[in-house]
Amino acid sequence: MRKSIFIIAAALILITGCRNQDQNLNADVEIPVSVEYIKLKSIEEFINTTGTAFPKGEILLKSKITALYYLERNPETGRSWQLGDRIKAGALIARLEDKEYVNSIKLETNQLNLELMESELKKEESLYEKGGVTLKELKTAGINYENAKTTVESSKLQLEKTRVIAPIDGVIVDLPYYTQNTQVETGSTIAKIMDYQVMFMDVQLPEKYITIIKPGQIVKLTNYTIPEDTITGNITQLSPAINADTRTFKGNISINNPKYLLRPGMFVKADIVTSHKDSVIVIPKTIILSRQRGKTVFIYDRGVVAERIIETGLENVSDIEVTKGLSKNDRIVTSGFETLSNKSKVKIIK
């Protein structure tokens, strides 16, 4: 009997000891976490929208006469103009030759006639001052001179139809192929030029933002083909009217595109910046835990973490401003926080 009591007592002591040992092990467990020092940053609050980017200007150049076609060379490259070439206003794209058409204009004859009419007018003015001609004769000479000048200007305009010149700075986006020295008909497309260093896009904005979005606000634009670059623009116009069917209002965005990163017709994601703050505490939204007492984060201090209840301000898709509860240079837990509680022991792994 005594032997049985002794065995039971020994077993109880062993079990109790194991439990105490397990509790001590649990108490000493250090949860691996990553921490970062809090630094002051800037944060922007924005409204997302999308739209299609269009060029500031575009022009379609067509043949105004039937003539032989000759494509000119790009002075920058030394080769014939090609799709994608940048072009300056005034650059010659193509010549249209028709000797019969040029002869019919009679530019040289009309210029000689203008010189003659100018000489006659000066002569009549001199005689009129001396009383040698009447006022009617002087006015007739003036009319003849003006008619001759108009005829020369008209001849020059007709002659310009033989030269296809870029009227704007831009990029050649369409250049139909014609064999050199072959005839093109009146109305044939010669080239299409787009100026897209500045672009614009129309967007439809939800009704709830009509008092928040204002002309002049900065817009940051991206496209999946240029993930490394953000292009800036501005809200230029806003409609005061709400579409009754879609509950949206129309806005216009001007886009600065000096490096031609955006292309006409691209589908663009636009972030309209509605609020901005500099030098504030900003943390990732993903490290905030929602608990009964409020939004919670963990701060590291000498091997343990402390629970902090925070208040927040501006926020965007990834970040949020902390207005109360944190200080600059606090060490905040950025990973491994999911299982933490107040005063948990931790081990920094990053």
Structural features:
350 residues, alpha+beta, conserved putative lor/sdh protein from methanococcus maripaludis s2 fold, Elongation Factor Tu (Ef-tu), domain 3, OB fold (Dihydrolipoamide Acetyltransferase, E2P), 3 domains, eleven-stranded antiparallel β-sheet, disordered N terminus
Kindly describe this structure:
The two termini are 60 Å apart. The chain is elongated. The protein is built from 4 helices and 21 strands. Helix 3 runs antiparallel to helix 4. Strands 2, 3, 5, 8, 10, 11, 12, 13, 14, 18 and 19 form an 11-stranded antiparallel beta sheet that branches. Strands 1, 15, 16, 17, 20 and 21 form a 6-stranded mixed beta sheet that branches. The protein folds into 3 domains: 30-42 and 278-348, conserved putative lor/sdh protein from methanococcus maripaludis s2 fold, CATH 2.40.420.20; 46-55 and 196-276, Efflux pump adaptor protein, beta barrel domain (Elongation Factor Tu (Ef-tu), domain 3), CATH 2.40.30.170; 59-191, OB fold (Dihydrolipoamide Acetyltransferase, E2P) (Beta Barrel). The protein is 24% helix and 42% strand. With 350 residues, the chain is an alpha+beta fold.
